[in-house]
Amino acid sequence: MTDYQAVIKGLDLDESEKRYLEERWLDQVRWLSGKAAWSQRRYYAFRLTTVVGAVLVPALASGTALSGTEFWGIDLARVSKIAIWIVGVIVAISAAVEQLFHFGERWRNYRRTAERLKSIGWMFFELGPPYADAKNHKAAFPLFVRDAEQVLQADVDAYVSRVTSDPQAGGGQSGQPS
After folding, report:
1. Most distant pair of Cα atoms in the chain: their distance
2. Structure confidence by residue, pLDDT tens digits, 61-103
3. CA distance 15 to 135
């Protein structure tokens, strides 16, 4: 990650303003980026387990046609039936856990918010739009704080309405982020 702390230290701001940048803005950027990566790994792990398992079941089902066939004294049809059951249970658990915890939506929500915060941060650092009319960072700082807090509040609202809601209860949007 970029050394934001060095950039922050170089700004002509009061210590309390720099503390806000480090302890609020930068802390949230790092936290959100970490949670996005964590959620992405879980999302892919559960989705991959579900997809691979779903592909394996038909392949294993073809083994049930081997009725009466033995390999080293093992009934292959019976082994195939047991394997289908085990893989089916794993697929069901994997799909249910991903659906329950919404790792994909969490990942996208965290990533979206982290990137929005980074974007407004760089616009502030460079005094680009919407901070271009400010004479310096000190003059632009209140606008930056307003923008950062709006992004963070929107993140909370989105998390509560989309990620933690139960689509079956009517509180969600059928599992799809907007």
Report:
1. 85
2. 876 665 566 667 777 777 888 999 999 999 999 999 999 999 9
3. 19
- Other residues' Cβ atoms within 10 Å of the Cβ of residue 23: 10
The residue behind tokens 């079956």 is: 168
Q: Give 136's DSSP letter.
A: S
Ramachandran region of residue 165, left (φ > 0), alpha (ψ -120 to 50) or beta? beta
For the chain, how many residues are written? Answer: 178
d(CA 124, CA 173): 34
Partners of 75 in beta bridges? 70
- Which token pair is 44? 């892919």
**Would the pTM of this model clear 0.90, i.e. be above it?**
no
49-52 own/partner pairs: CB under 8 Å, 24+ apart: 49/90, 49/91, 49/94, 50/91, 50/94, 50/95, 50/98
